[in-house]
Amino acid sequence: MQVGRGRGGTIALTSSGRARLSRDRVGLQLAFSQDSDLAGWDGNWHLLALGAPESERAIRDAFRRDVQALGAASISTGLYLTPHDVAPLLPEQVGRYLVTATATTMSVRGMTEPRAITEALWPAHDTVTSYTALDAALDADDDETDPLARQLFLAGALDAALRNDPLVPPELRRTPWPPTEIRRRWLTHWHDAISSAEGPQVYQGWLRD
Question: Of 66, 67, 146, 199, which sits with the fewest C-beta atoms within 10 Å of its C-beta?
Fold first, then answer.
C-alpha cells in the first residue's frame, strides 16, 4: 500500500499483506523444524469447513483461498483435510463460521493408510518438481557475488519452492525426501551469504534456525 507521493511517500504492508507474511514465516519455520526432526506428526488429521451463508460469499471465497494456501486439500465439497492445525492461521473474520474436527483415523476414497492418503491428496511428484528451480538456483549460486544480492537471490528461490509445498509431515513421505535435502543444501549457501555480508542483513530476523 502506498501512502503519499514522491520523496515523502511511503510503502507499507496492508493487513492482508501482513497476514500473508506471518503465514509465510510460520511455513518457513515449519519446513526447517521438520528438516531437523523437531516437528513430528502427532497422528491427528484436521478437518475444516465453513458454515457461512450464501450471502457471505466474500468470506467463503477467502476461506477457500486461504485454507488451500495453508496446504489443506479438498476431500469433499467445502470440506478440507490437513495433517496440521491451521485454524489459528486463518483470517479472524472466518472464525464465527469455522467448523473444525480432529481425527486419528481417516478414510478418503477408500484409503485408510496415512501415506496412501497423503500421496492421493498431495502427490510427491508435484512437490518434488516444485524444488527443481531451487536446486538449479543453488547450482548457479556464486560465492563471488555481492552477499546482499546473494541473499535476495537465495531467499526468492526458496520462497518460490515453498509456495507449492504443503509441508506434509516427513512421517507421511518417503525417505530420503528430496525437498528436505535441497533445503538443507540451501541453508549451507544461506549461511555462507550472511556470514560474508558486512552491516545489516537484507532479511534481518527472517530466518531463525
Answer: 199
